[in-house]
Amino acid sequence: MNNSTACNDGIRDILKTILVLQKESDIPGNCLDTCDKRSLGDIPSICGYNTRPITIYLCGCCSNRLEMPTTRNPFDTTSSPVFRIEKLDEDTATFRVLIANAGDPVTYTATDSFFTVDIDCICALKCLGDTFVESV
Asked: How far is it, in rounded angstroms, from Cα 48 to Cα 41?
């Protein structure tokens, strides 16, 4: 196994953990503040968190994070660097683009904009604070 494969397995494992947490947000666990901590939110609670938003950095351009359009309208050029994982396959992950709510940069609204990335192209993930996302 080369280093690239080992790194990609780690990214895949983290994405899988986040996806499971979002589907079953009441899983009890520890409170470590990392991407793969076992609960959404600050501590296991009934706060109603349903999303662990992330930013993605692609291989070959790690100094620039990925940004994607917030709408399917080709005339709207608004983009966002914040995403919610929606589906994970063997080699790809599908994400939904999130928009930060005006006046509250730690809450987001889901868009109808989705994209799929080859996991081998992801070199880094940055987890943002767990939150509740409207219209998921």
From this structure: 9
Selection from 52, 65, 1 nearest residue 24 by Cα: 52
Are 54 and 18 in contact by the 8 Å Cβ rule? The answer is: yes
Cite the DSSP H helix spans in the chain. 3-23
Pairing of strands 104-118, 92-101: antiparallel
Quick check: 38 and 49 in contact, CB under 8 A? no
Whether 134 and 109 have beta carbons less than 8 Å apart is answered as yes
Structural domains of the chain, count: 1
Q: Please give the residue range of the domain that contains residue 110.
A: 3-134
| Cβ atoms 111, 71 nearer than 8 A | yes
Q: Which of 132, 126, 100 is nearest to 35 (CA)?
A: 126
Q: What is the pTM of this model?
A: 0.78
CA distance 131 to 90: 27
Q: Can you say whether the dihedral through the CA atoms of 112, 95, 53, 41 is positive or negative? A: positive
Tens-place pLDDT, residues 16-74: 999 988 887 644 444 445 676 666 665 555 557 889 999 999 987 656 889 999 998 88
